[in-house]
Amino acid sequence: MRFLPCALASLLALCQRGLAAPPSEGNITNGPAGDSSLPNGPPNPSLLPRITPKVMIVSMFAPEADVWYENMRLDGFGDLLALNISVPGTSPKYPYVHCTLDGQVCQMTTCEGEINAATSMMALAIANQFDFRKTYWLVAGIAGVNPKYSTIGGVALARYSVQAALQYEFDAREMPDNFSTGYVAFGTMGPDHYPTILYGTEVFEVNQALRDRAFDYASKANLTDNEDSKRYRARYKPAGNSLAMASSGPSVVKCDTVTSDVYYSGKLLSESFERTVDIWTNGTGRYCMTAQEDNATLAALIKAAIFGFVDFARVIILRTGSNFDRPPPGVTAYEHLLVLKQNGFAVAIGNLYLAGIEIVKGILNDWTAVFDKGVKPCNYIGDIFGSLGGEPDYGPGSLTGGQPVKPAV
């Protein structure tokens, strides 16, 4: 295990308990967070240099962030705790954005859950301490994993993120006899229909060409594994070819994410959300990772992109499997979720960094040749409304005739 200096470790422990008091609004400090070298009171933003990151790593909770702090400096990619910037509106548990001394790579932690992710990301995206117009956003966290397409420790790069829990819900004990699930899309009368009432956050699609480049970089990683994870994976072997990925070792795959604040588990719920992803993406999405934050994070970035604060074509979604979303043969959903130990947390955190740092390294190394000018999308990018322009390849089509939404002035 790699160790942080005592002062940093103490501060991080306080932040994790929600006790760290941020410096004055807008403060930029050198060295460990909290050692403010600026006078009291909020500084004049116009007098501070704006940081222009090439990569912004987005974590959701402390372990996902710590793995970057602990390893980047030792691996020669810079100290993420060299610059610590307080941003008003971010989580009080994680009030700082951390950057390398040259400002090329930064990292922030949203705190878990959709509401925390949306509010923290919105605050960051419009923060006056940064210029994000050319920044690549690496949304990198652990997740539940669909054993059909990946495994514990597996790495997934997504094209779609689907807010599958944004539906009507019956308790399965009270649903009609002819229903296959208790989830029914808004505005419909039964399962497996496209919603007719839309909130705008149901489906997001990111840049497939960029996803494919990120996949190539991540595939260079020498992923980690452990014996405990191997033992739990072996439970899926009796299922045969349908769950062959579950019992294999970690690899990098291309498949999509589901967002739900409910930490669900079991074959029936997981298969219900598989159908939701398939229907809501017009058969082009494939659900393999489930987490709590991605649609909220992307919703904030869409809104910031409408006003030109960020470039939504520069968003990458990276998730690693820490636990299976449904049990292996012969195990109940209850035992799988609450009794048995899947032992996937450590390997998922480890591979999050190992795959993620290859993406960061690729962007930095190929900045001049590729990434400075941007990776041109080959697909529609944006939300289900068509807010950024273009015609969504799912849903009822653009609300503005294919034109970008005009910001209110």
UniProtKB/TrEMBL annotation:
The keyword Transmembrane does not apply. The keyword Transmembrane helix does not apply. Residues 1-20 form the signal peptide. GO terms for molecular function: catalytic activity. InterPro entries: Nucleoside_phosphorylase_sf (IPR035994), Pur_nuclsid_perm (IPR009486). GO terms for cellular component: endoplasmic reticulum. One of its GO terms (biological process) is transmembrane transport. Pfam families: NUP (PF06516). Residues 25-45 are annotated as: Disordered. Gene3D superfamilies: Nucleoside phosphorylase domain (3.40.50.1580). Keywords: Signal. This is Purine nucleoside permease-domain-containing protein. It comes from Triangularia verruculosa. The lineage of its organism: Eukaryota, Fungi, Dikarya, Ascomycota, Pezizomycotina.
